[in-house]
Design goal:
Blueprint lengths: L2 E2 L2 E9 L3 E8 L4 E8 L1 H4 L2 H15 L9 E7 L2 E7 L4 E2 H8 L4 H20 L12 E3 L5 E3 L4 H6 L16 H4 L6 H17 L9 H10 L14 H10 L11 H44 L2 H14 L3 E8 L4 E4 L2 E5 L2 E6 L2 E8 L6 E7 L4 E6 L4 E9 L4 E4 L2 E5 L2 E7 L1 E8 L6 E7 L5 E6 L5 E8 L4 E4 L2 E5 L2 E6 L2 E8 L6 E7 L4 E7 L5 E8 L4 E4 L2 E5 L2 E6 L2 E8 L6 E7 L5 E7 L4 E9 L3 E5 L2 E6 L2 E8 L1 E8 L6 E7 L4 E7 L11 E5 L4 E10 L2 E6 L2 E6 L3 E6 L1
Parallel strand pairs: 10-16, 17-23, 24-30, 31-37, 38-44
Antiparallel strand pairs: 1-2, 2-3, 3-4, 4-6, 5-6, 7-8, 8-9, 10-13, 11-12, 11-14, 14-15, 17-20, 18-19, 18-21, 21-22, 24-27, 25-26, 25-28, 28-29, 31-34, 32-33, 32-35, 35-36, 38-41, 39-40, 39-42, 42-43, 45-46, 45-49, 46-47, 47-48
Amino acid sequence: MQVIGKYKVIEKIGETETTTIYKAIQISLGRIVALRVLKPEFSTNREFIERFRKEAKPVAKLNHPNIVQIYDVGQENDIHYVATEYCEGESLDLILGRERKLSPERTKQIVIQIARALDYAHRQGVYHVAVKPHDIIISKGGQVKLLDLGIARAAESISSGGTIFGAPQYISPEQARGEKAGSRSDIYSLGIVIYEMLTGKVPFDSGNPVEVARLHVSEPLPPLRKWNEKIPPGIEAVVSKCLEKNPEKRYQTPEELVREWEKLNETSRVTRISRGRDTIIRKKESIRRRVSKKQIAIPAICLVLVILVFLILSRGSSLNIRSEPSKVSIYVDGKYCGETPVSVRNLRGGEHVVLGKKKGFKDFHQEVMVGMGGLSLQLNLIREIGLVRILTIPEGAQVYVGDELKGRTPLLLKNLPVGEYRVKLMMDDYSTEERVLKVEGGAPVTLEAKLVSLHGSILIESVPEGAEIYVNGIYKGLSPKTLVGLKPGRYEVLLKKDGYSDLKKYVFLRKKQRFSLKAKLEEKLLLLIVHSEPSDANVFLDGNFKGKTPLDLGRLHSGEHRIRIEKEGYAVVEKTVALDASQPRTLVSARMKGITGFLLVVCSPRRATVYVDGEERGEVNDSLSIGNLVEGEHQLQVVKSGYKVAEEKVEIAAGKTTIVNIDLEEAVRKWKPTVRLYLRTGGEIEGEIISRKDEKIVLRVEGGLITLKVSEVESEEDL
């Protein structure tokens, strides 16, 4: 299995315009994640990478049941990845490919969840900018998850030169014009998705992306009922408002869209009630017509009996109504008659329509026949139920409604009767939250609570950011990060980052303490070892003299450094060395090339003394070879008693031998001393000074040359 960073890849599960998606396991926690790896063409785009990281930070802070959670953003070599929550289910585009279109009721269930996710993200300043069916995952239980927040916006930032990035069928007119996208752009994209769910097709499509963009900007919206006549007019109006060309005419927030959709359901219910009443009245009139026809046909005696019955009934009958629960508002034939228990008197005999209404209960409708002796009626109303979503930060809190445990957050209560409830949220190491929850029929109710930790927290920051955090040996993520729910006690915090020395700190946490740990990581200091052949060469590092070879240079920072090695008589060696934190020791070895030449002196007569630049180099027999002379001009002197001193300038070439032939000329005059030296030992010497060099004096005396140290001479006197 391939390993990317801290994750072991299990299998490839999908692909988008920018990423390849793998099912993977986080090695340190054993947690299954979805690992989204940027494709190579984006991994080398520095602008996209920087925008991607910038967008990922606020998205990682989002915590909503309908938004896929981001766990980690990282890099290994040239591979950039983001690890997210792994969701079991199908994408909406696969469902539409199989079923073509969805019913209005199923569409509503999906749309409301996505709209609430977008509304939450927008309130945190995060926009999707490219909502499409591929980004919507639906589980078997019907829960909807929204993907790719941040990645889509980063991708949008690299679109240029008339290129429409991603799926142009879902972009808003303002995006097509190159304007900045925002909340209302997401509403437009969601409107396209709703249109596709209800009709099985998008409103604007073409093989040319630029043409699709033009259609979004200028082409009127094809009516939904053109493709699906069963779509209610109210839903068509909602979708049309989402897809207005002018953002100002759309819904301004996703929550407005949710409220409008829920009003449609309430209106549909009232319409059905009205139609039911019309049907009852029509039946009543039909019965009267049938009775009237029969009355015409009966004998006169029967007519008299009917008249007598009518006279009795005209005296008035009563309708006694009781209910469970009590205090139900009663309407008879549309007229309010009071609250149960109630007795409605002076009703004429025959059919009547009874309507019972009580808040929190479904309306009661019944057609009754009231006779001469009156009628007693018992109403049993059915409670209306509401949908309640309970969310907490952190998740996992126990939810008590009244004294009954309902489960743990995030929790969806589907059959909670309308009314007021006392809700208690409890979690170990956190304070208990108590709320009053008002449940109404129809519109879902969301209860959100942020629990206060009874224990402490540690905010860990580092310079630079992105250091791995280990607490008591367990990996906790990358800095900066806040660790919450920590019990009082001692914690070992270890920070690791490539190129920097590990930093270990101990934190002693008190109850409810909020501790802030700020750490500056030190770059690893590296060792550079410099050798040369020959040794004893001068070493310069970044222009500064550091010593002579062999030399160990410690406490160096990673990066490039300039090395210069010099030695007299040898060519200078210069090198650029790149120090890497992964290699604590680096060796630089230099074999230096000589820049000296040789001098061969041939002299007649023999046994003459040779001086080069005033330094005695030996006595000539047949010849004298002198090496290691620096390239350039040198002063040669050949001295022999009884002969004139021979002096000559000699040019030495590197790597070559220069030959000089000397024929000494006998002296024709008597030699006379020119100086008298008084020695520290008490003696004195007369002679002629030939040279002074390196604290030495070369003196010609009767019979030859002698060399004295300057320290041996007390004083001198010219003769």
